[in-house]
From TrEMBL:
Protein name: Lysophospholipid acyltransferase 7
Subcellular location: Membrane
Alphabetic keyword roster: Acyltransferase, Membrane, Transferase, Transmembrane, Transmembrane helix
TM stretches of this protein: 116-132, 144-160, 262-280, 307-328
A Pfam family: MBOAT
One GO term describing the cellular component: mitochondria-associated endoplasmic reticulum membrane contact site
BP GO annotations: lipid modification; phosphatidylinositol biosynthetic process
Keyword Acyltransferase listed: yes
Pathway terms, separated by semicolons: Lipid metabolism; phospholipid metabolism; Phospholipid metabolism
Family to which the UniProt record says this protein belongs: Belongs to the membrane-bound acyltransferase family.
Membrane topology: Multi-pass membrane protein
Length: 336
């Protein structure tokens, strides 16, 4: 699947039509679903072979291996196909075979998404009119001073966040209306994974007098995105279903010695083959997000030249400082 994704991303270099935005978005979700389903099937087959060992471990759900038609309907399911969120075949199967979803009230879940839309959509329209991204792409960007470029980067990042917030609130609402990711609250569902308390799932599934939530397809933790104290916490609150996919199907299944760089590579590769995406608390996110928005080498480097690559040098100094501090700490312990 990654080979197909590679071909589609570089096809325009060989005279073929360029992968357009919507087509690219579909291809991204399809990649997640195909690889995720493959691992779900593999885990099910492995569990059958080692049923005695699995029985003694923590209880875990495995899918009923789908037919070709069932797999096709999951992979091409319209819900979430254009924008996400990613959901597993198990989650899709649960929604498809539930007899009670049409009777469960999801009004409060939808209203919660609409509350976010009530401010993200107007702000998106305002920042679309201001066009900070187009200003950063223009030739005049080299004429702006350092502080103007920092301000434009901040505005561009606000535009990106509002665009993502708006799109995902709508996408999550569609999932909720379709019954995807709806489980009893006491099941302790987590994003991407689904119910963790399987005893409560069996006990309360289908009951109308218990509370339900849609945490399984919750793709954003906006308060943590806006108030994060660092890159790690900010990224974990952003696009959470993809974070789950990377953790479950890449990070945990890779050799410990190189799992971190490999996971970061797969994440960058999945997002796209664009020079701006290769260079990726909020000032850092603002500058890096411009590479995500500008895409081309010329536009990205022109902007970063204007701000003297301050973030990149800062990160290098922090990394070197941490390395030497660790060496000093080890040396100090040995002398003691």
């Amino acid at each position: 699947m990654l080979k197909i994704l590679t071909f589609l991303r570089i096809a325009h270099f060989f005279g073929l039509p360029k992968l357009e935005f919507i087509t690219n978005a579909i291809q991204l979700i399809m990649t997640l679903r195909v690889i995720g389903l493959s691992y779900e099937i593999a885990d099910t087959r492995e569990a059958k072979k080692e049923s005695k060992e699995i029985h003694n471990k923590r209880e875990k759900r495995f899918i009923i291996e789908p037919t070709t038609f069932e797999a096709f309907t999951y992979l091409y399911s319209f819900t979430g196909l254009f924008t996400g969120p990613y959901y597993s075949y198990q989650t899709y199967h649960d929604a498809l075979h539930s007899e009670f979803l049409t009777k469960i009230s999801v009004r409060w879940m939808i209203m919660k998404k609409m509350q976010t839309l009530s401010w993200s959509l107007p702000m998106l329209i305002i920042f679309y009119i201001l066009s900070p991204v187009e200003m950063l792409k223009s030739e005049k960007v080299s004429e702006y001073n350092f502080f103007t470029l920092i301000l434009l980067s901040s505005l561009a990042f606000v535009y990106l966040r509002m665009r993502i917030y708006t799109a995902w609130m709508i996408a999550e609402s569609i999932c909720i209306c379709s019954g995807i990711g709806i489980y009893p609250l006491h099941c302790n569902s987590s994003t991407g994974f689904g119910p963790r308390n399987l005893a409560k799932l069996r006990e309360e599934s289908g009951l109308l007098d218990v509370e339900y939530d849609a945490e399984t397809i919750n793709n954003l933790d906006i308060p943590h995105v806006e108030c994060s104290d660092g890159f790690r916490s900010g990224m974990r609150a952003w696009n959470k279903t993809v974070q789950y996919w990377l953790a479950t199907f890449v990070y945990k299944r890779t050799n410990k010695s190189w799992r971190m760089p490999y996971t970061m590579f797969i994440s960058a590769f999945w997002h796209g083959i664009h020079p701006g995406w290769r260079f990726i608390r909020t000032k850092g996110f603002e500058l890096m997000a411009c590479g995500f928005l500008l895409l081309s080498w010329t536009d990205t480097v022109r902007l970063w030249n204007g701000v003297y690559w301050w973030l990149h040098f800062t990160m290098i100094f922090v990394a070197l400082g941490s390395y030497f501090a660790l060496l000093f700490k080890r040396k100090f312990k040995k002398t003691d």
